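User: Last request for today: this protein with heme C, please.
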Amino acid sequence: MKPSPWMMIGALFLLAACNQKAQQAAPSVANEPAAAATSPKHASGFEPPADSSIPSDDFGKQIALGRQIFIDTGRYAKGYVGNQLSCENCHLDAGRLAQSAPLWGAYPMYPAYRSKNHHVNTFAERLQGCFQYSMNGKAPPLGDDVLVALEAYAYWMSKGESIGVAPLGHGYPKLPKPAQAPDYARGESVFKRDCALCHGDNGQGQQAAGRTVFPPLWGPQSFNWGAGMERLDNAAGFIKANMPLSRGNTLTDQDAWDVAYFMNGHERPQDPRFHGSIEETRKAYHDTPDSLYGATVNGKTLGEGVLK
Ligand code: HEC
Ligand code: HEC
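Assistant: Here's the final one, the structure of the complex with heme C:
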């Protein structure tokens, strides 16, 4: 088969993306994105250890497996993943990047109470939730090799952090509420201008040789309605700091909110906690202006779900 121009463009962007990842992984400050001078990672003084320092003993094997699961989840945690995403798609640079919910910002904060399920969660339970919602899959049972390896990776990466103190750069940045209420049409223009080239005109992403080159933003292969990224505040913060890839912090806050609204104003797989009615499910789990589940956007009521 002759490669189509789109495949060529895809390949070019793959190269650009890899290059970007290599730059993020490099310790040299000169290679850091423009925001590095004020980057919370630097302000916190915490640098996660280099991959090259993963030990070569049994513990090291678990850490290395955890890293593989994190960056190629569908392959290394097969059976627990129901979409085309990997953990790394939302936790950039293999879970190391500040302001991209890095693992070193998360691990020291557990066990923690979560209003999402009304009890104190262990880190392993937190990971289970990622599989159910962000990965639209199944939670690996507690003690499963997949969870043990991910815990090992996060524990190793967080060595030297204080327990229970949120380091700067943890989570996604919290943007101030936008001056104008987020808007679908404005979000669509931002999407066409700054996102569609990589993520596709219909947010479907791009695959090459059965692997995800650009992850889908909505539709059957993306995160489901129960995921954290479904919240406009999470999505706007992630997008502002990290997108367009390699040009983080170039969008205005308003653009980030608008494009988050446009992205989450589309259908995606049903919330696995679905109660039988969109209204009831909204009341139980999505009762916030930051969720568009059950809202009418662009003439359609959201929350029907789409099948894989
Ligand atoms: C679609 C994007 C997306 C994907 C894919 C994803 N996550 Fe997340 N993750 C998020 C968001 C958004 C949050 C913050 C959620 C919240 O505050 O409710 C989060 C939070 C977390 C946290 C807690 C962070 C903290 O600071 O408390 C951990 C740990 C985590 N994810 C691990 C994973 C793992 C492991 C995978 C793969 C199995 C994964 N995530 C896949 C978006 C994603
Ligand atoms: C140059 C290509 C490129 C552009 C342009 C781009 N992205 Fe991304 N985006 C990516 C890649 C690659 C990832 C996964 C990052 C990784 O795995 O390291 C990603 C991840 C994401 C994710 C998390 C994963 C998912 O599928 O939900 C969201 C949300 C996202 N991008 C939104 C946007 C938005 C909104 C824009 C426009 C403002 C945008 N992106 C522009 C390449 C791009």
